Amino acid sequence: MARTVRTGTGLSRRELLRRAAGAGAAAAGGIFQAGWAAPAAAQTTQKRDLIVAQGGDVSRFDPHMSTSSNDVRVSFNLFDNLLSRHPDGQLFPGLATQWKRTDPTTWEFKLLDGVKWHNGDPFTSDDAKFSLERTYDPAAHTLVATVFTTIDRIEAPTPASLVIHTKKPDPLLPARLAFYGGQIVPKKYLTAAGPDQFNAKPVGTGPMRFVSWVKDDKAVFEAYPQYWAGRIDVDRVVFRPIPETAARVAAVLRGEVDLITQLSPDQWDRVNQNPSTMGKGVLYAGLYVLGVNSKVKPLDNPLVKQAMSLAIDRQSIVKDLWRGRGLVPNGLIAKGDNHYDPSLPPLPYDPARAKAKLKEGNYNNEPVIIETTVGYVANDKAMSEAIAAMWKDVGVNVRVEVIEYSVRAEHNRDRSFKGLWWSDPTSTLGDPDGMMWRLLAPGGPMDYWRNPEWDKLGTDARFSIDEKFRDQAYKRMNQMALQYLPWIPVIQPSEDYGIQKYVAFTPNGNQQLDIRRFNFHMRRG
Amino acid sequence: MTMRGFGAFLAYRLARTLVALWLVSSVVFVVMRLSGDPVPLLLPPDAPTSEIFRVRHDLGLDRPLAVQYAVFLQNVLHGDFGRSIHFRQGAMGVALGYLPATLELGAAAFLIAVLCALPIGILSAVRRNSPLDHGAMGFALIGQSAPTFFIGVLLILVFSLRLNLFPTSGRGGLAHLVLPAATLGAFTMASIARITRSAMLEVLRTDFVRTARAKGVAEAAVIVKHTLKNASLPIITITGLQLGTLLGGAIVTETVFAWPGMGRLAVESIYNRDYPVVQAVVFIAAVLFVVINFTLDMLYGVLDPRIREAG
Q1: Quick check: A298 and A304 in contact, CB under 8 A?
Q2: Which long-range contacts (CB under 8 A, 24 or more apart) does A313-319 make?
Q3: CB neighbours (10 Å) of residue A73?
Q4: In DSSP terms, which residues pair with B43 in a beta bridge?
Q5: 3-class secondary-structure state, position A153
Q6: Using CA atoms, how far apart are residues A7 and A66, in angstroms rounded to an integer?
Q7: Residue A486 in contact with partner chain B when CB distance is under 8 A
Q8: How many other C-beta atoms can be found within 10 angstroms of the C-beta atom of residue B83?
């Protein structure tokens, strides 16, 4: 998820603190082993509260004003989308009960009847039309303005039906509607109250209703009794920010919170060994990659990049730095996405071939710079150091520079990275279009490399409703990308959560945290 | 000191205070602006350039630094610290919203520190070189040198997880306050205990203490009335300085314990390049420091006639 705009979080920024806390935890580890008396393992509960602790606080409730994961976990429960992507990756009805393409550029949606907003107003197709149009309305200045660029116009013929005309055929429109940007907001309330008031007192149709927010302390919600898909299993939901990993883990171990996000790999065993808690992991819907500025020497040379990719011992990184919580990618398409090719082998580690490739590419000891953040993606600095060592082993003249978040954001905006940098591209649509094409397309945020064939395939695939063609196109694009390496994929990590055993919950790899009935309940005795 | 003398003294102190606040605000203003641009952090990575320029313009960041500074000063003189870029609310309001949590934590830490440190320091001095003295000073050394996050995590592991006595984090009732306050107060406690001990030892060596003992004054009175009172100046100095540190926001402690205080706000705001909030937080912290220092100066005057006359 676009973490660049993940303002107001704090979890991973404070590497210093975290490392230190890690050291503290390690030093104090004996205390755990010495056997602290845990309360009897509770596998069921009568609790009516759900307390979630995440690494940073909510920054906005207005779903169109943020794509940060700390906000999305909340806004997806305050609001509904027309469609809903469940943890199994499939699309299910949301506020739309049915949808079909009536011609290549026209989609018709049947909407739920009788749904009420949290303030009692009725939900109609006008709200849906208003919401989607708001995302790309220049005057609204939303942060999701690029999500629905394929839409030409929207009609709301009856209160329970919606028609969307796209500029060209858009096979992924339903998928776009299911993710961020697609949350439906109340036209009447938002227009009357204004965006600031709406953000301060959000009104949605979702399973939980806003109650109060004390910044950096807690955001409190209550179950919405009239929720159209059934009232959720708790009365109150509280989101608390606990930036420090050790404290967040301690909170779930002690039973103060029911669910924590961003469980770090080194705490996985601890949470599982504790009788009342367990870890719950899901493969991240995306990859952790090193972005490559293919315009600078020697990274303009595909052979050098191939050598660098071959020289990375990804197995060791997964095993040692991630304690096995992740897997080695086989290309630029994330496992679990459309058009992922399971027959491809994991990216190989072959230092001998890497050396040969460097020679073949006439690598002349030009410096290669990794600009690493500290905690922008988990383990980024540690991985940078490990990879730098691996590259030095095959003779790459590599240097690691540590940069700050705002510097990264500036480089990102100006496309001015010196060499390589960490990125965690999220697959927003469960499809390469929402990942490699979204980011690497001409004009995209990571546009440092162009190839006419690749560009044509990407454009054609975006606007094709022929799934066979799309499959071929993405296979070829993946193949080419592994040759030219606009990204060097490193790991597809596991997104891990710590939960009380009485919480029945399935995480979604795209960092959505649905507390809806289909995905969440408390085990009652 | 005459009334007029006191008035002049006050006016002088006030002027110095204002200059200090002006300098602090200006330094923060310049440093924050040199450190980076908030706009890329506000917008999605794929935001068009036009949008970046618009936001910059809206925030007034496209104007020359000198103009921005002049506007800033003028606004501050009117009590306006600008709107938070991140929260989209008045920056001072945002910062003040975090103040109660910080004051609560700081005051609790201070109380714990002073209530523990004074008896420890006095006892150590009186029972110099006893096992008690060695134990206490060893403990103080650890308190002063162990990093705050280490103490914090250790306290969570021992008192929350193992002994199940206190909550691990967050703000709530008294129970929530104990561990973060103890963590934050550890350093202060150690410094006050050590300074108390050495100040007491100094005075205990003096002739008038020997005289007091010789003329048969009760030992408790010797220690409290003769020794402690005369040793109080350095103790108060250190205590006052520490109080400023405690109230100015405890970044590490607040982070470890997820305490919604000003220190955490400051760090978040620095990361977000939320200039107005950083300025407001620093201003509040500076005011706290200045007030504490001023109070200390007054206290010196009360406690030590020599300073009063010289002042």
Answers
A1: yes
A2: A313/A349, A313/A390, A314/A346, A314/A347, A314/A349, A314/A490, A314/A491, A315/A346, A315/A349, A316/A386, A317/A383, A317/A386, A317/A387, A317/A490, A317/A491, A318/A491
A3: 21
A4: none
A5: strand
A6: 9
A7: no
A8: 18
Q: DSSP states of A214-254 as a string?
A: ETTTEEEEEE-TT-TT---S-SEEEEEE---HHHHHHHHHT
3-class secondary structure, A347: coil
Mutation target vs A (from B33, B157, B269; most A CBs, 10 A cutoff): B157
For residue A109, list its beta bridge partners. Answer: A99, A162
Three-state secondary structure call for residue A489:
strand
Query: How far is Cα A181 from Cα A195, in angstroms, rounded to an integer?
Result: 15
Cα A178 to chain center, whole Å? 14
* pLDDT single digits (tens) B227-284: 887 788 888 888 888 887 787 658 889 988 989 988 888 888 887 778 888 888 888 8
Rounded to two decimals, the ipTM of the complex is: 0.78
Average pLDDT, consecutive stretches of 10 residues, N- to C-terminus, chain A (525 residues): 36 36 40 42 84 92 90 95 93 96 95 96 97 92 88 96 95 94 96 94 97 92 96 95 91 95 93 94 95 95 97 96 95 95 96 96 96 90 96 96 85 90 93 93 91 96 93 96 97 96 93 92 88
Q: Check residue A41 and give its pLDDT.
A: 56
Q: How many contacts does A have with B, using Cβ atoms within 8 A? A: 171
Q: Is A5 on the interface with B (CB under 8 A)?
A: yes
A427, amino acid identity: S
The encoded tokens of residue B289 equal 């420091």
* DSSP-assigned letters across all residues of B81-99: --B-TTT-SBHHHHHHHHH
Contact B165/A at CB under 8 A: no
User: Which chain B residues are within 8 Å of A409, Cβ to Cβ?
Assistant: 40-41, 45
Q: Which distant-in-sequence residues (6+ apart) come within 8 Å of A340 by Cβ?
A: A333, A334
Q: Establish if B177 touches chain A: CB-CB under 8 angstroms.
A: no
Cα–Cα distance for residue pair A344/A288, rounded to 1 Å: 18
Tell me the chain B residues in contact with residue A37 when contact means C-beta distances shorter than 8 Å: 164
Please answer yes or no on whether A32 and B161 come within 8 Å at the CB atom.
Answer: yes
pTM > 0.90: yes or no? no
Q: Is B176 on the interface with A (CB under 8 A)?
A: no
Helix H, strand E, coil C: the string for A69-126 is HHHHHHHHHHCCECEEECCCCCEEECCEEEEEEEECCEEEEEECCCCECCCCCECCHH
Question: How many Å apart are CA B40 and CA B52, to the nearest integer?
Answer: 7
Residues of B in contact with A65 (CB under 8 A): none
Show residues of chain B in contact with A242, CB under 8 Å. 169-170, 258
User: Looking at the complex, does the CB of residue A141 fall below 8 Å from at least one CB of chain B?
Assistant: yes
Tell whether omega for the bond before B276 is within 30 degrees of 0, i.e. cis: no
CA proximity to B238, closest of B272, B269, B194 = B194
